[in-house]
Amino acid sequence: MKFAAAAFAVAIAAASPVLAQSTAAHASDKVESGQYQVDKSHAKIIFSFNHLGFSTSYGLFSDFDATLTVDSKAVDKSALAVTVNMDGVLTTVPKFDAHLKSPDLFDTAKYPTASFKSTSIEVTGPTSGKISGELTLHGVTKPVVLDATLAGSGIHPMNKKYVAGFNATTKVKRSDFGLAYAVPVVGDEVTLTISAEFVRQ
């Protein structure tokens, strides 16, 4: 046991510089200018809503493309564009996934994608901002504002590419997009929680 404990301690000590370097690699609170593409393996759009007044239901989209243009000297000239594959919705309940894709709700056969295109970006703090844009869902376009924060940026310790990670939240009323099935028994307000890493091209 003593040998195992000593070996574990040595392993932790040896790994510490690597862990410190990894943490330092993405600790910056600034984002460099450039064209970025979302890393789909590290990006999620999670949606949640009230279910019958008893619980909060969750689902997600992980199949989406997004491009980000950053102008660090004129942030208002930066831009974000996102296209979501609506057929990729996942709740871990197959019957519910099928219902979400049906004409009752997303009607993915008729509306296979949703999109968001920024119209303005406002800096509100050292690592926070508001991204205003147009969300097109179920054939309806409405203005939406994302409250965004920079999680970190820097050289990725694995692929050695420059990466910037962001989190964002917003709330929308699904009935505004013609998705009024079971409202108000099932909540109309939907919270979107977004996390994504972007790789500079």
Automatic annotation (TrEMBL):
Q: Which SUPFAM superfamilies match?
A: YceI-like
Tell me which UniProt keywords the record has, alphabetically: Signal
Query: What InterPro entries does this protein map onto?
Result: Lipid/polyisoprenoid-bd_YceI (IPR007372), TTHA0802/YceI-like_sf (IPR036761)
| Keyword Signal (UniProt) | yes
Domain Lipid/polyisoprenoid-binding YceI-like: where? 35-199
Is Signal set as a keyword in this record? yes
UniProt xrefs under SMART domains: YceI
Give the protein name, as stated in the record: Lipid/polyisoprenoid-binding YceI-like domain-containing protein
Which species expresses this protein natively? Answer: Paramagnetospirillum kuznetsovii
